[in-house]
Amino acid sequence: MIELAVDDVVTTHDEARRHEREPLLVLDPLRAFLDAHGLGAGPVTPTPIGAGHSNVTFLLERDGWEGVLRRPPRGPLPPSAHNVLREAGLLRKLGPTEARVAEVIAVGDDPSVIGAPFYVMGKIEGHVVTNTVPPELDSVDERRRMSVELVDRLVEVHAVDWRAAGLEGFGKPTGYLERQLRRWTGLWEHNRTRELPAFERVGRWLADNRPESPPATIVHGDYRLGNVMMAPEAPARIVAIFDWEMATIGDPLADLGYLTAMWFEADDPPMMMELSNVTRQTGFLRRDELIARYEAGSGRAMTDIRWYQTLAVWKAIVFMEGNYKRAVSGATDDPYLKSFGDGVLELAERAEAMALGG
């Protein structure tokens, strides 16, 4: 469980003003907001959940009700990043589709309530698998089934008719890869704390070898094992996909590239930046098996998958450097983020080996 600092959760805005940093939650106005939406009664008990390295997520408990609140981290934040209101709007549009998403039940678009925009979604029971597998799913067959579910649900997301879902204007269906290179180069300028020549070299390789995209789909942007919830009992099945903050309309192979680039097999060398290490265990599919299953399910060719995997690691450099910058600036107490300094260098070496190693 993530430990709260003394200034993370306060009771009133007057109390918040006595601290140097902005709070993450202000309980009295939050309670009034929940009351106005008919969500439980009485005092609010918040508990941080999830990894907590990006947007901040709390389980909220009160008499007769439980829900989950999601808000941006403390600033300073890169332009257009951590837009939880955009994320909430997407989840509401995806609710009637085949995509597995949580129900958004209230949106706080007034930052004066807790100090930032936020939304509240219904609580879903299940397991988020990162570094341990719950006993109910801890067998060779169930680990394989988790892998299969992960690929099949991604195929399902990419099959959603985004125009019919009302997502015209949510993203531009053409030019996605070109915009990705431009946007993440700009974010690097905002996030970086040092020179990193390998990042520049990989960026040039990506620009020089950019493939032609297949027809556009919804793109999750951070699709991995740790961002889905498995049902609480066997057989393994995904009941919800979380963390849609980077979603857009674009090239679906960017999701597969990211999923497989961040997927570690038993004989892979250890890395500091492993977001989940359970996939090293027997039963989990190997990267080539994930790719083959996606190809069979989606009908899309995998000719350029190395390019998409390299893009994923290159983007992770930018994202992790931003988290490291927040840690060294004092915007977060998360000790894990302070280790990102060396982890970013490791990612840069990996991206360069993928791009230029043949």
Automatic annotation (TrEMBL):
Domain of life: Bacteria
Domain Aminoglycoside phosphotransferase: 47-271
Any Pfam family matching the protein: APH
InterPro entries documented for this protein: ACAD10-like (IPR052898), ACAD10_11_N (IPR041726), Aminoglycoside_PTrfase (IPR002575), Kinase-like_dom_sf (IPR011009)
Record-linked PANTHER family: HAD FAMILY PHOSPHATASE, HYDROLASE, PUTATIVE (AFU_ORTHOLOGUE AFUA_1G12880)-RELATED
Protein name stated in the entry: Aminoglycoside phosphotransferase domain-containing protein
Organism from which the protein derives: Capillimicrobium parvum
